[in-house]
Amino acid sequence: MSTIIGHNYIGGQRSAAGKVIVRSIDANTGENLPYSFYQATLEEVDSAALAAASAFPTYRNLSAARRAEFLDAIADELDTLGDDFVALVCRETALPAVRIQGERGRTSGQMRLFAKVLRRGDFYGARIDLALPERKPLPRPDLRQYRIGLGPVAVFGASNFPLAFSTAGGDSAAALAAGCPVVFKAHSGHMATAEYVANAIITAAERTGMPAGVFNMIYGAGVGEALVKHPAIQAVGFTGSLKGGRALCDMAAARPQPIPVFAEMSSVNPVVVLPQALNVRADSIANELCASVVQGCGQFCTNPGLVLGIRSTNFSAFQQRLAALINDQPAQTMLNPGTLGSYGKGLQKLHSHPAIEHLAGGTQQGSQAQPQLFKADVNLLLKGDEVLQEEVFGPTTVIVEVADQTQLHAALNGLQGQLTATLIGEPGDFAQFSELTALLEQKVGRILLNGYPTGVEVCDSMVHGGPYPATSDARGTSVGTLAIDRFLRPVCFQNFPDSLLPDALKDANPLGISRLVDGQAVRDSL
Amino acid sequence: MSTIIGHNYIGGQRSAAGKVIVRSIDANTGENLPYSFYQATLEEVDSAALAAASAFPTYRNLSAARRAEFLDAIADELDTLGDDFVALVCRETALPAVRIQGERGRTSGQMRLFAKVLRRGDFYGARIDLALPERKPLPRPDLRQYRIGLGPVAVFGASNFPLAFSTAGGDSAAALAAGCPVVFKAHSGHMATAEYVANAIITAAERTGMPAGVFNMIYGAGVGEALVKHPAIQAVGFTGSLKGGRALCDMAAARPQPIPVFAEMSSVNPVVVLPQALNVRADSIANELCASVVQGCGQFCTNPGLVLGIRSTNFSAFQQRLAALINDQPAQTMLNPGTLGSYGKGLQKLHSHPAIEHLAGGTQQGSQAQPQLFKADVNLLLKGDEVLQEEVFGPTTVIVEVADQTQLHAALNGLQGQLTATLIGEPGDFAQFSELTALLEQKVGRILLNGYPTGVEVCDSMVHGGPYPATSDARGTSVGTLAIDRFLRPVCFQNFPDSLLPDALKDANPLGISRLVDGQAVRDSL
After folding, report:
1. Are A526 and A128 spatial neighbours (Cβ–Cβ below 8 Å)?
2. Per-residue pLDDT reduced to its tens digit, B38-49
3. Is B520 exposed, middle or buried (0-12, 13-18, 19+ CB in 10 A)?
4. Phi and psi at residue B17, in whole multiples of 5°?
5. Which of residues 449-508 of A touch B (CB under 8 A)?
6. Of chain B's two ends, which shows fewer C-beta atoms within 10 Å, N or C?
């Protein structure tokens, strides 16, 4: 196991110019871990951004196959991180070892999936319109388009996925795949973990001959603002709170050159339990839903925070069953004291609202999070009250009972943008409520039938995104291969000789990729 | 010829609730045309946005083939606009009839091209990952992704393309193709033209059974702010000045729900004239370049505003030749008095700068724009002076002489983002300056070899975009079929039965589109 020295990673070197020391904390005990990290100075933030900018021309011009080698090498390095590493992550996050082992595999698998995307070549979006020299009244020139990386990307990782959404997580993987060097702001909740992962990335970069500065990492509080405002940074990836994400968006929009921010923020992930499903399997739904609410102490972006159903004896019984289950759930340790504090405040907001009733869950106190169940008046959704719109991050959910199908629509329409929405139903339900799909499409990034939103598959078809405030830009996803699109932009070549064109656009199609040629998708050479 | 009544277009009705009357002006005489337009009241802006929102659920759920019918019908209606219409556009814009006739064809052709895109189906971005029920440790659910429209789009047209970038122009076509209803802010420079075109769109909408509110148009000054801030509006397309575009971006970013703005703003479109080309064809380059500078009174986003060359006797002779040509060019009438005023101010800025020399062009005065040639010290680019960065919209260009290849790089690196860059050279030049392509790729949306940037082909491969300040978001293009991407977002369906999936994602692939299935592009059914 390598030594944790807590120096910033800048241009392939380590740097500890600052005087401010930040500490990593044992999430279970609240005690300092024996590691010190040097908060980056403003000069170091500048150097990290410039190192990324300096790497950009070389890195983006490497073939996609070479970048794929780099991602595969990162994956291999991540896989070699052993039990001692897992134990360390568990100490910093209070997450169980089996979860971290799974997440390690998910993170390396994600890197390898982006390597596949690079080799597949559809990310280029290659398009060719051949010259029409005889066209009247004007000839058409030869025009060819592909996509290149935007430039250096600043990434802010999540606390709740210390591997898969953090240092070498989805945003970093997508940016690196796109040809964009990364400056990563280490999450204060798992800085020792971040150091191990950064070492893995740097080792992979050196092993595969990547330019120094392809990956940089800085420690500390308050360094994010300087990073986002740095002229060299061309895009931002963020996973975290609505407040934090919106602050970054506002900063980025106010720059002399505004840049895009892809922030995954707040989602209450409504689950609609339909009548016939309640008829035939209310108890199993209650069991599954309860498991989804408390899984990982509810610390998922896709945690189901709202459960909607139509008033009926079945739905009343379902609520009682769910309340009993929630009362049986043990308290769990959260990722860090800040998360626990936010959970407490979020619960307090629900407890103190006159139109919200507490149905189940022990008093929230001490050092762990107590699962909770609430019930809210549907008028909160119908009349645009904010209280149900922002997620309470942790093991809690809120039931909303509606009068009928019409009110169900109105309640769903009252929701702001979401990462997910879920319909639990039988075939007869889906026939009766067939219009819900189109309604929910306008609200969310992913609609599930008879599943639970926790558990986000990393694949080509995944959308982990959605309208504001779920994310800052509904056109992106932060999970799955489409995430690469956020960091690419198109460039067109007019009247270029073959020798000067990038391989993706050469006549012979040396990469063997699919291209849109005169409006037809073909893999052939021209 | 239909009567121009100057009422706003709201939800398929005409509305004239306001008291403020705005007038259209004869661009040649400066006199009022005999048409009155009713500036939209704030209530009318609200109604227009709500009409678009109300049309959205129906419109976006129409099949792509139905939307294609609508676009084709708009194209047919545009083609029937006859000589009286052309004469009217000419009166409002001072553009010649042959140009307007060409632009009419370009505009209807653009609509038909987007109809083709809708029928082709690649805009769906359909992706399918089939369920893997036996996968360990966890099964994979069935996941399918396609793209849907963002919602109502506000469009602000350009003055310089009263048809192709205006009411039924590229932004409107792309938004309507994407399934997004449009609220169009009629350009004050050609409101009568806008009324004719809006009538064509409304006729097409009625003829093809589109929902009322699919297209709305409002007149007046100052209505744009209320439109961009309206909660129903989900994206903005804009073509115009840096100041205007940036103001819209700032408004959109400050909304409770920020929305994307695709603003095409300011570009000086550098042209690099390489040494061997000057050796063999300096005079023809000077002729072509001069023609590109003064074409359409220089009123093109892609007008070449900067000409770079390496110091030599040939380049000196070229400058003299270009100066002589510019001195021979007649003054031309601009689109409107505002444009002429801005041109005058832009010239004054160049005249008064101590590091810029005036090489050719008669004194700017009177009611027409006089073509001009300037020469600027390369240090303005090397040291980040703002004076050369923002375009002077009109028939003028600035020569920058560099010492050598190294200084050429530095000068190009000193440029902000551009729509285009052009290299004029012989094969030997491209061998010697082969690194310029990679350098310019980072600066621009389109690189041309031995062409001139005026003239933007509408096709799949075109990029009319580029880094800030050329546009507000380098990831988009406002010309060409990729423009549809700006108004689409992905949605994922998890574990959906075939009957509830959209056609684009059904097993049988009833649309016959190409889809990425388990990482392979296929057109087959599953």
Report:
1. yes
2. 999 999 999 999
3. exposed
4. -85, -15
5. 449-451, 455, 457, 459-463, 465, 467-469, 472-475, 477, 482, 486, 488-497, 499-500
6. N
Chain A contact for B31 (CB, 8 A cutoff): no
Cα–Cα dist B453/B444, whole Å: 12
Angle at B447 between CA B443 and CA B451, to 5 degrees: 140
Tokens read off for A429: 């339900």
CA nearest A200: which of A160, A168, A156?
A168
ipTM of the complex: 0.97
DSSP string, A401-452: EESSHHHHHHHHHTS--EEEEEEE--HHHHHHTTTHHHHHHTTEEEEEESS-
- Residue A237, classed as helix, strand or coil, is strand
Residue A242, SS3 per DSSP: helix
d(Cα B281, Cα B279) in Å, to the nearest integer? 6
Q: Tens of pLDDT along chain B (526 residues)? A: 568 999 999 999 999 999 999 999 999 999 999 999 999 999 999 999 999 999 999 999 999 999 999 999 999 999 999 999 999 999 999 999 999 999 999 999 999 999 999 999 999 999 999 999 999 889 999 999 999 999 999 999 999 999 999 999 999 999 999 999 999 999 999 999 999 999 999 999 999 999 999 999 999 988 999 999 999 999 999 999 999 999 999 999 999 999 999 999 999 999 999 999 999 999 999 999 999 999 999 999 999 999 999 999 999 999 999 999 999 999 999 999 999 999 999 999 999 999 999 999 999 999 999 999 999 999 999 998 999 998 999 999 999 999 999 999 999 999 999 999 999 999 999 999 999 999 999 999 999 999 999 989 999 999 999 999 999 999 999 999 999 999 999 999 999 999 999 999 999 999 999 999 999 999 999 9
d(CA B197, CA A224): 48
Quick check: A127 contacting B, CB < 8 Å?
Answer: yes
Catalytic (active site) residue A401 = no
Catalytic residue, candidates A92, A290, A301, A390: A301
Q: Which residues of A472-489 are buried (b: 16+ CB within 10 A; e: fewer)?
A: bbbbbbbbbbbbbbbbbb
Is the torsion defined by CA of B423, B428, B432, B435 positive or negative? positive
Is residue B290 among the annotated active site residues? no
Classify A132 as helix, strand or coil: strand
For residue B488, give the nearest of B474, B476, B498 by alpha carbon.
B476
B148, B302, B461, best to mutate vs chain A, most A CBs in 10 Å: B461
What CA–CA distance (Å, rounded) separates B431 from B439? 15
Taking CB atoms and an 8 Å limit, are A457 and B514 in contact across chains? no
Rounded to 5°, the CA angle B434-B436-B437 comes to 85
Q: Name residues whose C-beta falls within 8 Å of residue B328's C-beta, 6 or more positions apart in sequence.
A: none
pTM score of the predicted model: 0.97
- A306 contacts A400 by C-beta, under 8 angstroms: yes
State how far the Cα of B240 lies from the Cα of B256, in Å rounded to an integer. Answer: 25
Residue A137 binned pLDDT confidence (cut-offs 50, 70, 90): confident
**At A2, is the pLDDT very low, low, confident or very high (cuts 50, 70, 90)?**
low
Q: Is B521 exposed, middle or buried (0-12, 13-18, 19+ CB in 10 A)?
A: middle
Task: Label residue B411 exposed, middle or buried (CB < 10 Å: 0-12, 13-18, 19+).
Answer: buried
What DSSP assignment string belongs to B352-388? T-TTEEEEE-----TTSBPPEEEEE-THHHHTT-STT
A97: left (phi over 0), alpha (psi -120 to 50) or beta: alpha
CA–CA distance, B115 with B133 (Å, rounded to integer): 39
Asked if residues B518 and A473 have their Cβ atoms less than 8 Å apart, the reply is no
Sheet holding B182-185, edge to edge: B13-15, B8-10, B215-218, B182-185, B153-156, B235-239, B261-264
